[in-house]
Design a protein that fits this description.
single chain; alpha/beta; 5 helices; 5 strands
Length: about 170
């Protein structure tokens, strides 16, 4: 399937197998964007704005990332938002425990500085998880550990709410 993707014979590949194995095979077969050293897993999330999605990455490809990786994720997320959702000038945020510049882990604080110093196109700063699905952001960048927690937390809330709604109607 990845070979067909590389030859432009298909637009997408879906795998139900090992995430790590698929990511490794995709990296070897499809290669990386120039300047990108580490792949990221991404997922579109719905937002409060009808029809608008936010792209969150990394959602679990790596448990440990550097500030440079987060900058590369910002680039990949920006390109993804432009190509897939046709977003002009996507707004890019770092997932953090506060919106202030000095909030976040040491790695995310360093990434904030790198993105700011580089005048990264569309970089708006930090965003808290509670606002991630508001529709304010087009791209949210996270290390793989925190992004995976966000993903699984959102899945858990959705499952809980679905069950509560179903129970209310019964």
């Amino acid at each position: 399937a990845l070979k067909y993707m590389k030859e432009n014979s298909c637009d997408a590949v879906i795998s139900c197998g090992s995430t790590g194995g698929f990511l490794s095979a995709a990296t070897v077969t499809l290669k990386m964007i120039e300047g990108v050293k580490r792949a990221a897993l991404t997922a579109p999330f719905p937002t409060q704005i009808k029809g608008k999605k936010v792209t969150l990455l990394d959602i679990g490809a790596s448990n440990e990332n550097t500030a440079e990786h987060l900058v590369q994720f910002a680039l990949m997320g920006k390109l993804y938002s432009e190509a897939v959702y046709k977003t002009e000038n996507p707004s890019v945020y770092l997932l953090s425990n506060g919106a202030e510049e000095m909030k976040g882990s040491p790695v995310s604080k360093e990434a904030y500085k790198l993105l700011s110093d580089a005048n990264f196109p569309g970089f708006k700063g930090n965003i808290e998880a509670r606002y991630a699905l508001s529709g304010k952001a087009d791209v949210i960048v996270s290390d793989g550990f925190s992004g995976n927690i966000f993903l699984k937390g959102a899945e858990g809330v959705a499952k809980m709410m679905s069950g509560m709604i179903k129970k209310a109607f019964k």
